[in-house]
């Protein structure tokens, strides 16, 4: 395999990993900031209050974006990785 093909495939894989992870990370960030602000305003310092809402938000977004993630990863694998493995 040529070095250029390897680096191009690696670049595409990193970009796809970023696209797939972005919805979950954005929701985790928003939920964390919201819960942190709520805790700061009410002086409630309960550990489960930070964990449970973020977990629920992440699970909801993961469930909603599961089709996009699966389609993106499957198309990358079938269009890019399998031809490289087969030597085409």
UniProtKB/TrEMBL annotation:
Q: Which Pfam families match?
A: Bac_export_3 (PF01313)
- Membrane topology according to the record: Multi-pass membrane protein
The main location class comes to membrane
The membrane-spanning stretches of this chain are: 12-38, 50-69
A single GO BP? protein secretion
Query: Looking at the keywords, is Cell membrane present?
Result: yes
Q: Name one GO cellular component term.
A: plasma membrane
The source's domain of life comes to Bacteria
Q: Where in the cell is it found?
A: Cell membrane
Keyword hit for Cell membrane: yes
Keywords, A to Z, come to: Cell membrane, Cell projection, Cilium, Flagellum, Membrane, Transmembrane, Transmembrane helix
**Family membership noted in the UniProt record:** Belongs to the FliQ/MopD/SpaQ family.
Name of protein: Flagellar biosynthetic protein FliQ
The organism encoding this protein is: Celeribacter ethanolicus
């Amino acid at each position: 395999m040529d070095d250029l093909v390897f680096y191009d495939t690696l670049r595409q894989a990193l970009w796809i990993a970023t696209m797939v992870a972005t919805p979950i990370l954005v929701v985790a960030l928003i939920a964390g900031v919201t819960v942190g602000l709520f805790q700061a305003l009410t002086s409630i310092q309960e550990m489960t209050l930070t964990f449970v809402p973020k977990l629920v938000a992440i699970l909801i977004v993961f469930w909603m974006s599961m089709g996009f993630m699966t389609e993106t990863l499957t198309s990358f694998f079938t269009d890019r990785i399998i031809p490289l493995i087969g030597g085409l």
